[in-house]
Design brief:
Elements (H helix, E strand, L loop, with lengths): L13 E2 L11 E4 L2 E7 L6 E9 L2 E5 L6 H15 L4 E5 L5 H4 L2 H8 L2 E4 L1 H12 L3 H13 L8 H7 L1 H5 L8 E2 L5 E4 L2 E8 L6 E6 L4 E5 L21 H8 L11 E4 L5 E2 L1 H22 L6 H8 L6 H20 L3 E5 L5 E5 L3
Parallel strand pairs: 5-6, 6-7, 7-8, 12-13
Antiparallel strand pairs: 1-14, 2-3, 3-4, 4-5, 9-10, 10-11, 11-12, 15-16
Helix pairs in contact: 5-6, 9-11, 10-11
């Protein structure tokens, strides 16, 4: 799930369509490629999904969050677009709830197979199992270490178990998507391009014949994908992974039509890649400047996100703040020290 970012709207992208499909409707964006939208119960209130003709049937790309209103919207799509046709493939770009949430339900309904990268399928299965006190304790320890005050930790237990509430059990087997390999849909080759940082092994799909890139959350036109440190990997450096994975997309043609998971299909891929990289450069400069004295992750959150955040956004914001801090530690620009109370502080490295 992306976090609405504070950078100004893109000046480089152009939108291909004036409108967007209503919930339960579809809009054809290329031959045999249909755009549909599903509701989300957050400030970012929708996700784009894709329905592709596949011979005598269909392929679904991404599934929506596991909620009754999303199932109802899908049932409308079943009746009005899919009909009695089979669904040959259910493809999931990554494990996040708005993408993986109903994958198991859709696969069971259509007796179809799941296609995903190995890391995303594995992480989804494991995240569904994180229900014990050891998980809750690790989440509390992580957010306390990030600088959350004791009174803020009450929301952490609920957060630690939220994945299972939003994602039905993914299928017990899958077909593996591998970077550089091709997935055939309706006789066309879709090349798998794996992005990292936003999630472990995010699959994007590029069809040269149609000039289309299904970018998932890896490349968005108006907001930046959330790049976060999470309790499961508290010492990670996802921002480095994200920035290192972006240049591969610059090799695609400049006029590629990008189908993102949020906002509108757009053109202007190369300029948008530059904007995303520049955005993080600016955030890194702000983060480094803020560490003129030892700062916690929560201190940096308050510096980078000065607007009011709801509880859901707060967790994405602290993860993103820590990601920028960890990146600077990796560059040797900051050091991280643990206080006696278990809270980490970040400070500039002299010289």
């Amino acid at each position: 799930m992306p976090l609405p970012a504070t950078q100004p709207p893109s000046e480089t992208v152009t939108y291909e369509f004036d409108g967007m499909p209503d919930i339960g409707e579809t809009m054809e964006v290329a031959p045999g490629v249909f755009w549909l939208r599903m509701p989300l119960p957050f400030a970012l209130n929708h996700i784009n999904l894709w329905l592709l003709r596949d011979g005598d049937g269909w392929a679904i790309v991404d599934c929506g969050i596991a909620r009754d209103e999303v199932k109802d919207a899908w049932r409308t799509i079943f009746a009005e677009r899919i009909g009695d046709d089979p669904v040959n493939k259910v493809v999931v770009t990554h494990f996040h709830p708005d993408h993986m949430g109903l994958a198991g339900w859709l696969c069971e309904h259509f007796n179809s197979d799941l296609w995903a990268t190995q890391s995303e399928w594995t992480f989804a299965r494991l995240a569904r199992m994180q229900q014990g006190e050891d998980t809750a304790a690790q989440f509390r320890r992580f957010y306390r270490g990030a600088g959350f005050a004791p009174e803020m930790l009450g929301d952490v237990d609920q957060r630690s178990f939220s994945y299972a509430e939003r994602v039905l059990q993914p299928p017990p087997s899958f077909h593996r998507l591998v970077h550089g390999h091709e997935l055939e849909i309706d006789g066309r080759a879709w090349r798998v391009m794996v992005g990292t940082g936003h999630s472990p092994e995010h699959a994007c799909l590029y069809c040269a014949e149609l000039g289309l890139l299904i970018s998932g959350d890896q490349i968005l036109p108006k907001i930046s994908p959330n790049i976060s440190i999470w309790p499961q990997e508290p010492d990670g450096n996802p921002l480095q992974l994200y920035l290192e994975s972006l240049p591969q997309f610059a090799e695609l043609p400049a006029d590629t039509l990008v189908l993102p998971s949020h906002n509108w299909p757009f053109r202007g891929l190369h300029g948008r890649l530059d904007e995303l990289a520049h955005h993080h450069d600016e955030r890194l400069e702000e983060t480094l400047a803020a560490c003129d004295a030892p700062r916690t992750g929560f201190d940096i959150l308050r510096h980078l996100f000065r607007r009011e955040l709801d509880g859901h956004q707060m967790f994405f914001a602290i993860g993103e703040s820590l990601a920028h801090l960890h990146y600077l530690v990796g560059l040797g620009r900051l050091r991280r020290d643990r206080r006696e109370d278990g809270v980490f502080e970040f400070s500039r490295v002299d010289g």
